[in-house]
Amino acid sequence: MCRLFYITMQYLKEYQGFTVDLFDISRLLQMIGRGVTDKLKQLSETGFGANKVRAIKEYLVDFDLLGDKNLLTEFGELILKYDPRFREPFTRWLLVFHWSIKKNNPFLNFLVNNGIGIVTEERMVNKFKAWAVKNDVKTDYESDMLTGMMRNTSNAFTDPNAFLNLNFFIREDGSMQRGEPFQVEPLLIAYIIYYNRRKRTSIGFSELLREDGNVAKFFNLDVQTLDRRIVELNNLGLTRLIQFADLHFVEYTFDGDPLELVQKYYNEN
After folding, report:
1. Is the pTM of this model over 0.90?
2. What is the pLDDT of residues 203-218, one digit of tens each?
3. How far apart are CA 64 and CA 79, in angstroms?
4. How many Å apart are CA 29 and CA 161, to the nearest integer?
């Protein structure tokens, strides 16, 4: 019997050509939080055009703030309660982390895990396309959607209305490079580690360093820096670093929902 297998390609979003503007995105977040979900009312209250409202909703979805049926996610409700204007660097880091997940922004996922140090935009495009083929991401569009999406993503890290103050990426000599991340709280490190836990009771230190999307790749940490970060979590009782002979691994000691770590930060700060 012949069976047909279908590969579901992931499509890119250009966000209607609009770059990240956290002030405008926070306005719509708060509006939806008040129950204003009708599109015409959103257009009227914000004064935005239809394309801009659609773009902001795409950002809200890809930041994991907005879910199905135009309702806030549990994470979105938490941010709405504690930092609806995205003023805290901790909040902005959370948005960037969720944005970097492959299902949300494949290009940012590629940058975080693979693509730093490419000098020209042409070489960046070519390397991303090669990665996309292996990861079932569609890059052949009739318009300039690919380069537009790439620019919107990279510009978010050099724009003071977006994520410039995190120093996540810097633009230097025509290339996007990793910066030295600013204001990375221990509870942010803990959230990312537990978000990526996947029912494991422990994780090898070397695995933690190389695992796509996990904390070492996300913050571009070397062995020594990751070790210091884990010691901080040990001191908070959130992990246990085990070293025995050649074994070097991190034991998960927190059994709650990762969002509890986010709430803990806001409750304490």
Report:
1. yes
2. 999 999 999 999 999 9
3. 11
4. 16
